[in-house]
Protein backbone atom coordinates (compact mmCIF):
# COMPACT_ATOMS: atom_id res chain seq x y z
CA UNK A 1 0.00 0.00 0.00
CA UNK A 2 1.27 3.46 -0.91
CA UNK A 3 2.75 5.50 1.98
CA UNK A 4 2.76 2.58 4.42
CA UNK A 5 5.71 1.10 6.27
CA UNK A 6 7.99 4.06 5.65
CA UNK A 7 11.43 4.07 7.16
CA UNK A 8 12.41 6.84 9.65
CA UNK A 9 14.31 8.85 7.00
CA UNK A 10 11.34 8.87 4.65
CA UNK A 11 9.03 9.98 7.46
CA UNK A 12 11.41 12.77 8.45
CA UNK A 13 11.60 13.97 4.84
CA UNK A 14 7.78 14.14 4.64
CA UNK A 15 7.58 15.97 7.96
CA UNK A 16 10.15 18.55 6.98
CA UNK A 17 8.60 19.12 3.51
CA UNK A 18 5.19 19.41 5.16
CA UNK A 19 6.55 22.33 7.19
CA UNK A 20 8.23 23.76 4.12
CA UNK A 21 5.53 23.43 1.47
CA UNK A 22 2.18 22.96 3.23
CA UNK A 23 0.64 25.97 5.03
CA UNK A 24 0.62 25.49 8.78
CA UNK A 25 -1.68 27.13 11.30
CA UNK A 26 0.19 25.93 14.38
CA UNK A 27 3.90 26.22 15.06
CA UNK A 28 4.19 22.58 16.21
CA UNK A 29 4.16 20.54 13.01
CA UNK A 30 2.05 17.42 12.61
CA UNK A 31 1.87 14.87 15.42
CA UNK A 32 0.45 11.91 13.56
CA UNK A 33 0.96 10.54 10.06
CA UNK A 34 -2.14 8.42 9.42
CA UNK A 35 -2.40 6.59 6.12
CA UNK A 36 -5.12 3.98 6.46
CA UNK A 37 -8.50 3.63 8.13
CA UNK A 38 -11.07 0.88 8.48
CA UNK A 39 -14.08 0.99 10.81
CA UNK A 40 -12.95 2.55 14.09
CA UNK A 41 -9.27 1.74 13.48
CA UNK A 42 -6.58 3.83 11.78
CA UNK A 43 -2.92 3.08 11.09
CA UNK A 44 0.09 5.37 10.80
CA UNK A 45 2.95 5.31 8.28
CA UNK A 46 4.87 2.85 10.44
CA UNK A 47 1.93 0.46 10.68
CA UNK A 48 1.02 1.36 14.28
CA UNK A 49 -2.68 0.79 15.04
CA UNK A 50 -4.91 3.32 16.84
CA UNK A 51 -8.53 3.31 17.90
CA UNK A 52 -10.11 6.46 16.53
CA UNK A 53 -12.16 8.02 19.33
CA UNK A 54 -12.85 11.25 17.41
CA UNK A 55 -13.83 9.98 13.94
CA UNK A 56 -12.13 12.85 12.09
CA UNK A 57 -14.10 15.15 14.42
CA UNK A 58 -17.55 13.64 14.00
CA UNK A 59 -17.13 12.94 10.28
CA UNK A 60 -16.74 9.18 9.96
CA UNK A 61 -20.05 8.23 11.55
CA UNK A 62 -20.22 4.99 9.52
CA UNK A 63 -16.56 4.22 10.21
CA UNK A 64 -13.48 4.73 8.07
CA UNK A 65 -13.67 3.56 4.48
CA UNK A 66 -16.96 1.70 4.87
CA UNK A 67 -16.94 -0.78 1.93
CA UNK A 68 -20.37 0.37 0.68
CA UNK A 69 -19.29 4.02 0.76
CA UNK A 70 -16.05 3.20 -1.05
CA UNK A 71 -17.97 1.22 -3.66
CA UNK A 72 -20.42 4.12 -4.19
CA UNK A 73 -17.48 6.53 -4.61
CA UNK A 74 -15.75 4.26 -7.15
CA UNK A 75 -18.95 3.61 -9.09
CA UNK A 76 -19.76 7.33 -9.32
CA UNK A 77 -16.15 8.25 -10.17
CA UNK A 78 -16.17 5.71 -13.00
CA UNK A 79 -19.37 7.29 -14.31
CA UNK A 80 -18.49 10.98 -13.85
CA UNK A 81 -16.57 13.48 -11.78
CA UNK A 82 -17.50 17.15 -11.98
CA UNK A 83 -20.24 17.95 -14.49
CA UNK A 84 -21.13 21.56 -13.63
CA UNK A 85 -23.28 21.28 -10.61
CA UNK A 86 -25.56 24.32 -10.45
CA UNK A 87 -27.54 26.30 -12.92
CA UNK A 88 -28.19 24.23 -16.00
CA UNK A 89 -27.12 20.66 -15.35
CA UNK A 90 -29.27 18.11 -13.57
CA UNK A 91 -27.22 15.82 -11.34
CA UNK A 92 -29.45 12.85 -10.47
CA UNK A 93 -27.32 11.62 -7.56
CA UNK A 94 -27.77 15.04 -5.90
CA UNK A 95 -31.53 14.65 -6.20
CA UNK A 96 -31.35 11.13 -4.76
CA UNK A 97 -29.46 12.40 -1.72
CA UNK A 98 -31.73 15.44 -1.28
CA UNK A 99 -34.81 13.19 -1.46
CA UNK A 100 -33.43 10.91 1.25
CA UNK A 101 -32.40 13.87 3.40
CA UNK A 102 -35.92 15.30 3.23
CA UNK A 103 -37.10 12.09 4.93
CA UNK A 104 -34.88 12.67 7.98
CA UNK A 105 -34.92 16.46 8.37
CA UNK A 106 -37.43 18.18 10.68
CA UNK A 107 -40.94 18.65 9.20
CA UNK A 108 -41.08 21.04 6.24
CA UNK A 109 -37.31 21.44 5.86
CA UNK A 110 -37.28 19.78 2.48
CA UNK A 111 -34.87 21.79 0.38
CA UNK A 112 -31.08 21.75 0.56
CA UNK A 113 -28.43 23.94 -1.04
CA UNK A 114 -25.32 21.76 -1.26
CA UNK A 115 -21.93 23.21 -0.31
CA UNK A 116 -18.41 21.78 0.01
CA UNK A 117 -17.95 22.37 3.73
CA UNK A 118 -19.49 23.48 7.00
CA UNK A 119 -18.25 27.03 6.96
CA UNK A 120 -19.78 27.55 3.49
CA UNK A 121 -23.08 26.16 4.76
CA UNK A 122 -22.98 28.84 7.47
CA UNK A 123 -22.25 31.55 4.88
CA UNK A 124 -25.32 30.40 2.95
CA UNK A 125 -27.45 30.46 6.12
CA UNK A 126 -26.37 34.04 6.84
CA UNK A 127 -27.29 35.14 3.31
CA UNK A 128 -30.60 33.26 3.32
CA UNK A 129 -31.64 34.77 6.67
CA UNK A 130 -30.81 38.26 5.38
CA UNK A 131 -32.74 37.62 2.19
CA UNK A 132 -35.77 36.20 4.01
CA UNK A 133 -36.06 38.89 6.68
CA UNK A 134 -34.55 41.97 5.04
CA UNK A 135 -32.60 42.43 8.29
CA UNK A 136 -28.98 41.85 9.13
CA UNK A 137 -28.58 41.62 12.93
CA UNK A 138 -27.41 38.24 14.20
CA UNK A 139 -27.56 36.76 17.68
CA UNK A 140 -24.91 34.12 18.38
CA UNK A 141 -23.69 32.50 21.58
CA UNK A 142 -20.71 32.65 23.89
CA UNK A 143 -18.58 29.55 23.23
CA UNK A 144 -20.00 29.14 19.69
CA UNK A 145 -17.96 27.84 16.77
CA UNK A 146 -19.33 28.02 13.23
CA UNK A 147 -16.26 28.03 10.98
CA UNK A 148 -13.36 30.10 9.68
CA UNK A 149 -14.57 32.07 6.64
CA UNK A 150 -15.31 35.72 7.36
CA UNK A 151 -19.05 35.40 7.94
CA UNK A 152 -18.76 32.25 10.03
CA UNK A 153 -15.84 33.75 11.94
CA UNK A 154 -17.94 36.82 12.75
CA UNK A 155 -20.42 34.63 14.64
CA UNK A 156 -17.81 32.41 16.35
CA UNK A 157 -17.05 33.45 19.89
CA UNK A 158 -13.31 33.32 20.61
CA UNK A 159 -12.04 36.87 20.21
CA UNK A 160 -8.44 35.76 19.77
CA UNK A 161 -9.38 34.21 16.42
CA UNK A 162 -11.61 37.10 15.30
CA UNK A 163 -9.51 40.11 16.32
CA UNK A 164 -6.69 39.83 13.72
CA UNK A 165 -9.24 39.68 10.89
CA UNK A 166 -11.54 42.55 11.84
CA UNK A 167 -13.57 44.32 10.62
CA UNK A 168 -15.89 41.34 10.23
CA UNK A 169 -19.70 41.35 9.90
CA UNK A 170 -21.31 44.18 11.86
CA UNK A 171 -24.20 43.81 14.30
CA UNK A 172 -23.38 40.42 15.78
CA UNK A 173 -24.29 40.09 19.46
CA UNK A 174 -23.01 37.20 21.58
CA UNK A 175 -25.19 36.20 24.50
CA UNK A 176 -24.61 33.47 27.12
CA UNK A 177 -25.47 29.91 26.04
CA UNK A 178 -28.47 28.52 27.90
CA UNK A 179 -29.68 31.86 29.27
CA UNK A 180 -33.27 32.50 28.17
CA UNK A 181 -33.47 35.83 29.98
CA UNK A 182 -30.53 37.15 27.95
CA UNK A 183 -32.16 35.78 24.79
CA UNK A 184 -35.42 37.54 25.62
CA UNK A 185 -33.60 40.85 25.85
CA UNK A 186 -31.48 40.34 22.73
CA UNK A 187 -34.04 38.96 20.27
CA UNK A 188 -36.00 41.88 18.84
CA UNK A 189 -37.89 42.71 15.64
CA UNK A 190 -34.56 43.81 14.13
CA UNK A 191 -32.88 40.41 14.31
CA UNK A 192 -32.46 38.44 11.10
CA UNK A 193 -31.11 35.22 12.57
CA UNK A 194 -30.42 33.49 15.87
CA UNK A 195 -27.80 30.83 15.22
CA UNK A 196 -26.88 28.11 17.66
CA UNK A 197 -25.31 24.67 17.87
CA UNK A 198 -27.99 22.60 19.67
CA UNK A 199 -25.13 21.04 21.64
CA UNK A 200 -21.99 23.16 21.58
CA UNK A 201 -19.08 21.19 20.16
CA UNK A 202 -15.81 23.09 20.01
CA UNK A 203 -16.91 25.12 23.03
CA UNK A 204 -16.62 21.95 25.17
CA UNK A 205 -19.72 19.77 24.55
CA UNK A 206 -22.38 21.80 26.37
CA UNK A 207 -25.94 20.48 26.44
CA UNK A 208 -28.63 23.13 26.99
CA UNK A 209 -31.40 22.73 29.54
CA UNK A 210 -34.66 21.33 28.18
CA UNK A 211 -36.47 24.68 27.95
CA UNK A 212 -33.72 26.55 26.12
CA UNK A 213 -34.12 25.63 22.45
CA UNK A 214 -37.96 25.60 22.64
CA UNK A 215 -37.68 29.04 24.28
CA UNK A 216 -35.46 30.32 21.45
CA UNK A 217 -37.93 28.90 18.92
CA UNK A 218 -40.77 30.83 20.53
CA UNK A 219 -38.79 34.08 20.67
CA UNK A 220 -37.74 33.80 17.01
CA UNK A 221 -41.31 33.13 15.90
CA UNK A 222 -42.59 36.06 17.97
CA UNK A 223 -40.06 38.48 16.46
CA UNK A 224 -39.95 37.14 12.89
CA UNK A 225 -36.30 36.10 13.15
CA UNK A 226 -34.91 32.96 11.53
CA UNK A 227 -33.80 30.27 13.96
CA UNK A 228 -30.75 28.58 12.45
CA UNK A 229 -29.50 25.37 14.02
CA UNK A 230 -25.92 24.47 13.21
CA UNK A 231 -26.03 20.66 13.18
CA UNK A 232 -22.71 20.35 11.38
CA UNK A 233 -21.24 18.41 14.29
CA UNK A 234 -24.42 17.11 15.97
CA UNK A 235 -26.19 15.68 12.92
CA UNK A 236 -26.40 12.20 11.40
CA UNK A 237 -26.97 10.26 14.61
CA UNK A 238 -24.07 11.70 16.55
CA UNK A 239 -26.16 12.62 19.62
CA UNK A 240 -28.50 9.62 19.66
CA UNK A 241 -31.12 11.33 17.46
CA UNK A 242 -30.78 11.81 13.72
CA UNK A 243 -30.60 15.57 14.38
CA UNK A 244 -29.98 16.89 17.88
CA UNK A 245 -32.99 19.25 17.65
CA UNK A 246 -35.19 16.13 17.95
CA UNK A 247 -34.19 15.87 21.62
CA UNK A 248 -36.31 18.98 22.19
CA UNK A 249 -38.82 18.74 19.29
CA UNK A 250 -37.61 22.01 17.87
CA UNK A 251 -37.94 22.77 14.15
CA UNK A 252 -35.59 25.50 12.95
CA UNK A 253 -36.04 27.75 9.93
CA UNK A 254 -32.56 26.90 8.67
CA UNK A 255 -30.49 23.81 9.42
CA UNK A 256 -26.82 23.51 8.47
CA UNK A 257 -25.06 20.20 7.84
CA UNK A 258 -21.54 19.10 6.89
CA UNK A 259 -19.00 16.65 8.38
CA UNK A 260 -20.86 13.29 8.41
CA UNK A 261 -23.25 14.21 5.56
CA UNK A 262 -20.61 13.22 2.97
CA UNK A 263 -19.67 9.87 4.55
CA UNK A 264 -16.01 10.99 4.61
CA UNK A 265 -16.08 13.08 1.42
CA UNK A 266 -16.30 16.90 1.43
CA UNK A 267 -19.94 17.96 1.46
CA UNK A 268 -22.20 20.33 3.38
CA UNK A 269 -25.43 22.18 2.98
CA UNK A 270 -28.02 24.54 4.35
CA UNK A 271 -31.58 23.35 4.51
CA UNK A 272 -34.83 25.32 4.72
CA UNK A 273 -38.50 25.25 3.82
CA UNK A 274 -38.96 25.46 0.02
CA UNK A 275 -40.63 28.88 0.11
CA UNK A 276 -37.67 30.32 2.04
CA UNK A 277 -35.00 28.62 -0.06
CA UNK A 278 -36.71 29.67 -3.29
CA UNK A 279 -35.94 33.31 -2.43
CA UNK A 280 -32.45 32.56 -3.77
CA UNK A 281 -33.96 32.40 -7.26
CA UNK A 282 -34.64 36.15 -7.11
CA UNK A 283 -32.48 37.54 -8.54
CA UNK A 284 -31.51 34.36 -10.38
CA UNK A 285 -28.21 32.82 -9.24
CA UNK A 286 -28.31 34.66 -5.89
CA UNK A 287 -26.03 31.94 -4.56
CA UNK A 288 -23.64 29.68 -6.45
CA UNK A 289 -20.79 27.23 -6.02
CA UNK A 290 -18.65 25.35 -8.53
CA UNK A 291 -18.11 22.14 -6.59
CA UNK A 292 -20.86 22.13 -3.94
CA UNK A 293 -22.87 18.91 -4.22
CA UNK A 294 -20.11 17.16 -6.15
CA UNK A 295 -21.50 13.90 -7.60
CA UNK A 296 -18.86 11.74 -5.88
CA UNK A 297 -19.52 13.39 -2.51
CA UNK A 298 -23.28 12.98 -2.98
CA UNK A 299 -22.85 9.30 -3.88
CA UNK A 300 -20.79 8.77 -0.73
CA UNK A 301 -23.31 10.74 1.33
CA UNK A 302 -26.22 8.72 -0.01
CA UNK A 303 -24.50 5.41 0.77
CA UNK A 304 -23.58 6.63 4.24
CA UNK A 305 -27.11 7.88 5.00
CA UNK A 306 -28.58 4.54 3.92
CA UNK A 307 -26.14 2.70 6.20
CA UNK A 308 -27.01 4.92 9.19
CA UNK A 309 -30.72 4.19 8.72
CA UNK A 310 -30.45 0.49 7.79
CA UNK A 311 -28.02 -0.41 10.57
CA UNK A 312 -29.89 1.65 13.19
CA UNK A 313 -26.76 3.61 14.04
CA UNK A 314 -28.76 6.41 15.67
CA UNK A 315 -30.09 4.00 18.26
CA UNK A 316 -26.61 2.51 18.63
CA UNK A 317 -25.19 5.97 19.29
CA UNK A 318 -27.70 6.53 22.08
CA UNK A 319 -26.99 3.14 23.72
CA UNK A 320 -23.19 3.20 23.42
CA UNK A 321 -23.02 6.85 24.45
CA UNK A 322 -24.96 6.10 27.62
CA UNK A 323 -22.64 3.19 28.44
CA UNK A 324 -19.51 5.25 27.83
CA UNK A 325 -20.73 8.13 29.99
CA UNK A 326 -21.54 5.66 32.79
CA UNK A 327 -17.99 4.27 32.63
CA UNK A 328 -16.58 7.81 32.64
CA UNK A 329 -18.69 8.71 35.69
CA UNK A 330 -17.21 5.65 37.43
CA UNK A 331 -13.70 6.92 36.56
CA UNK A 332 -14.65 10.38 37.89
CA UNK A 333 -15.65 8.88 41.25
CA UNK A 334 -12.17 7.34 41.57
CA UNK A 335 -10.22 10.29 40.25
CA UNK A 336 -10.79 13.96 41.05
CA UNK A 337 -8.76 14.99 38.00
CA UNK A 338 -12.03 14.57 36.06
CA UNK A 339 -14.40 17.44 36.84
CA UNK A 340 -17.31 16.71 34.49
CA UNK A 341 -18.74 14.26 31.99
CA UNK A 342 -21.19 15.73 29.47
CA UNK A 343 -22.96 14.95 26.23
CA UNK A 344 -25.64 12.99 24.46
CA UNK A 345 -25.21 9.85 22.39
CA UNK A 346 -21.68 9.55 21.05
CA UNK A 347 -20.92 13.26 21.43
CA UNK A 348 -19.17 13.26 24.76
CA UNK A 349 -17.06 15.80 26.61
CA UNK A 350 -14.74 14.79 29.44
CA UNK A 351 -13.55 17.83 31.35
CA UNK A 352 -10.33 17.70 33.33
CA UNK A 353 -9.13 19.92 36.15
CA UNK A 354 -6.82 21.94 33.93
CA UNK A 355 -5.91 22.22 30.24
CA UNK A 356 -2.28 21.20 30.85
CA UNK A 357 -3.32 17.83 32.31
CA UNK A 358 -5.75 17.41 29.41
CA UNK A 359 -2.92 17.79 26.88
CA UNK A 360 -0.79 15.22 28.71
CA UNK A 361 -3.68 12.74 28.86
CA UNK A 362 -4.36 13.13 25.13
CA UNK A 363 -0.65 12.51 24.41
CA UNK A 364 -0.47 9.43 26.67
CA UNK A 365 -3.66 8.03 25.12
CA UNK A 366 -2.19 8.50 21.66
CA UNK A 367 1.05 6.73 22.64
CA UNK A 368 -1.05 3.88 24.02
CA UNK A 369 -3.15 3.70 20.83
CA UNK A 370 -6.28 5.86 21.23
CA UNK A 371 -6.81 9.09 19.32
CA UNK A 372 -8.55 11.82 21.29
CA UNK A 373 -8.63 15.58 20.95
CA UNK A 374 -9.80 18.66 22.75
CA UNK A 375 -12.11 21.30 21.29
CA UNK A 376 -10.39 24.29 19.68
CA UNK A 377 -12.32 26.53 22.07
CA UNK A 378 -12.10 24.39 25.19
CA UNK A 379 -8.61 23.27 26.08
CA UNK A 380 -9.70 21.47 29.26
CA UNK A 381 -12.31 19.22 27.66
CA UNK A 382 -11.46 16.05 25.79
CA UNK A 383 -13.98 15.09 23.16
CA UNK A 384 -15.01 11.51 22.59
CA UNK A 385 -16.87 11.02 19.30
CA UNK A 386 -15.98 7.64 17.80
CA UNK A 387 -17.63 6.21 14.68
CA UNK A 388 -21.21 5.13 15.47
CA UNK A 389 -20.17 1.68 14.18
CA UNK A 390 -17.50 1.15 16.85
CA UNK A 391 -17.86 -2.30 18.46
CA UNK A 392 -18.54 -2.86 22.16
CA UNK A 393 -15.10 -4.54 22.43
CA UNK A 394 -13.36 -1.54 20.86
CA UNK A 395 -15.18 0.82 23.23
CA UNK A 396 -14.01 -1.34 26.12
CA UNK A 397 -10.43 -1.40 24.90
CA UNK A 398 -10.38 2.36 24.28
CA UNK A 399 -11.84 3.25 27.67
CA UNK A 400 -9.26 0.98 29.35
CA UNK A 401 -6.52 2.91 27.55
CA UNK A 402 -8.03 6.28 28.53
CA UNK A 403 -8.09 5.14 32.16
CA UNK A 404 -4.44 4.13 31.92
CA UNK A 405 -3.55 7.46 30.26
CA UNK A 406 -5.21 9.35 33.13
CA UNK A 407 -3.28 7.29 35.72
CA UNK A 408 0.00 8.03 33.91
CA UNK A 409 -0.76 11.75 33.79
CA UNK A 410 -1.53 12.59 37.43
C1 LIG B 1 -20.64 23.31 14.73
C2 LIG B 1 -19.70 23.56 13.60
N1 LIG B 1 -20.03 24.45 12.66
C3 LIG B 1 -19.22 24.70 11.61
C4 LIG B 1 -18.02 24.05 11.46
C5 LIG B 1 -17.14 24.34 10.28
O1 LIG B 1 -17.16 23.27 9.40
P1 LIG B 1 -15.98 23.08 8.31
O2 LIG B 1 -14.73 22.76 9.09
O3 LIG B 1 -16.45 21.95 7.44
O4 LIG B 1 -15.87 24.36 7.57
C6 LIG B 1 -17.62 23.12 12.43
C7 LIG B 1 -16.32 22.43 12.32
O5 LIG B 1 -15.78 21.92 13.27
C8 LIG B 1 -18.48 22.87 13.53
O6 LIG B 1 -18.15 21.99 14.48
Q: How would you characterize this protein structure?
A:
It contains 14 helices and 15 strands. It is α/β, with parallel strands linked by helices. It folds into two domains: 8-62 and 312-409, Aspartate Aminotransferase, domain 1 (Alpha-Beta Complex); 67-310, Aspartate Aminotransferase, domain 2. β7, α9 and β8 form a beta-alpha-beta unit. The longest helix has 22 residues, at 313-334. The mean pLDDT is 96. The protein binds pyridoxal-5'-phosphate. Pyridoxal-5'-phosphate (PLP) binds at residues 57, 117-119, 122, 145-147, 197, 201-202, 230, 232-233, 258.
Keywords:
2 domains, alpha/beta, globular, seven-stranded mixed sheet, 15 strands, single chain, Aspartate Aminotransferase, domain 1
What's the end-to-end separation, in Å?
40 Å
Please state the structural category. Answer: alpha/beta
- DSSP strand count: 15
- The best one-word shape is globular
Task: Work out the radius of gyration.
Answer: 21 Å
Strand arrangement within the widest β-sheet reads 4-10-9-8-7-5-6
Regions with pLDDT < 50 over 5+ consecutive residues? none
The CATH architecture of the largest domain would be 3-Layer(aba) Sandwich
CATH homologous superfamily label of the largest domain: Type I PLP-dependent aspartate aminotransferase-like (Major domain)
Determine the strand fraction and express it as a percent band: 15-25%
Summarize this entry quickly.
By secondary structure, the chain is α/β, with parallel strands linked by helices.
Topology, element by element:
Elements: H1 8-21, E1 34-38, E2 41-44, E3 49-52, H2 55-58, H3 67-79, H4 92-104, E4 111-115, H5 118-133, E5 137-141, H6 150-154, H7 159-162, E6 172-175, H8 180-186, E7 191-196, H9 212-223, E8 226-230, E9 254-257, E10 268-272, H10 274-277, H11 295-310, H12 313-334, E11 338-344, E12 347-352, H13 355-368, E13 370-371, E14 373-375, E15 378-384, H14 392-409
Parallel strand pairs: 3-13, 5-6, 5-7, 7-8, 8-9
Antiparallel strand pairs: 1-2, 2-3, 4-10, 9-10, 11-12, 12-15, 14-15
Helix pairs in contact: 3-11, 4-11, 12-14, 13-14
This protein binds pyridoxal-5'-phosphate.
Pyridoxal-5'-phosphate is lined by residues 57, 117-119, 122, 145-147, 197, 201-202, 230, 232-233, 258.
Amino acid sequence: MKYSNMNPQEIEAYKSDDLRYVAQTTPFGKQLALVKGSGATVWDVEGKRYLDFIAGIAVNNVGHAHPEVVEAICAQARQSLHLNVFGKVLVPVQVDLARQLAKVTPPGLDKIFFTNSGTEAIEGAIKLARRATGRHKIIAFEGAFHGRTCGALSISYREVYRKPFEPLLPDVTFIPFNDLKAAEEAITDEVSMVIIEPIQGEGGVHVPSDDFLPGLRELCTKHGAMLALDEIQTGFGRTGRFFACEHWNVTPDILTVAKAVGGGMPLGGFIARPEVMDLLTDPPLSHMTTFGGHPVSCAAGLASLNIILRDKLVERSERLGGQIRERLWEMKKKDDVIVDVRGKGLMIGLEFRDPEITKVIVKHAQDLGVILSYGVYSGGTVRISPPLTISDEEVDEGLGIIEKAIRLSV
